[in-house]
Amino acid sequence: MSGRPIPFARNSSHFVHIQNSLTAVLKNIKTAKGLTAKVLWVSCRLNRSATQDSPVFVGWVEDVGAINVRVERHRPYAPVEIRFGDTHPSALYTSCLKAPLGTVVPRTWRSDKADPTSQRIGEKFYGETHRRSIAIRVKTVYVGTLNAAFLGDPSATEKRIREILVEWAQTANSPLVRYIRNNLDFSGPKCRKRDFN
After folding, report:
1. Residue 95's pLDDT band (boundaries 50, 70, 90)?
2. 102 with 170: CB under 8 angstroms?
């Protein structure tokens, strides 16, 4: 592949383009008809260049309401400031990279266990209760994950959330997928052939 290796710098144009896409995803979810849960944030991890499952945090955007909650909880620094470039492995990330095309991997933090070494920023900063994650597909490769977090159960609008995440993470012409394909040295595991049928 050609393009800028991952990870890239926090003050780079690559960061800005990823953040702009994440902001659009957050807005799309927030305006989903019938959404009763509060969308808190949207994040993106991408595989380190030339690896199959080595996540690097490359973006995290917060809803304005979530920022207020975070500050009230005495967490002055945005997660993007804390996690950008973080390479902490994740069982959820690996699950997404193994999932069939079109699969959104749900997490409910009351019943699902986070990795014991996780910083659990979503819980600590905002009281996050649910998360939805999906692999990002570029060509035939899973290059990372797109994640959305919620306060409250988003299952009433599960179908619409899935459509938004699939559109942004697995559609060839989405701004996020297009940017990664055209500008970054992406890598990751191949999607199973049957996933494309």
Report:
1. very high
2. yes
| pLDDT in the model for residue 140 | 95
Whether residue 18 contacts residue 59, with contact meaning beta carbons closer than 8 Å, is answered with yes
CATH number at residue 106: 3.30.450.40
Q: Phi and psi of 166, rounded to 5°?
A: -65, -45
CA distance 58 to 8: 8
Tokens (6 digits) for 65: 């309401």
Report yes or no on whether pTM surpasses 0.90.
yes
Among the listed residues 134, 124, 131, 93, the one whose alpha carbon sits nearest the alpha carbon of residue 109: 131
- Residue 134's domain comprises 4-113+122-191
Report, in angstroms and rounded to the nearest whole number, the Rg of the chain calculated over CA atoms: 16
Q: pLDDT band for position 117 (50/70/90)?
A: low
CA distance 169 to 18: 12
Residue at token pair 């070494």: 117
HSE (side-chain half, CA atoms, 13 Å) at 127: 14
Q: Give the β-pairing of 4-5 and 105-108.
A: unpaired
The total number of structural domains that make up the chain: 1
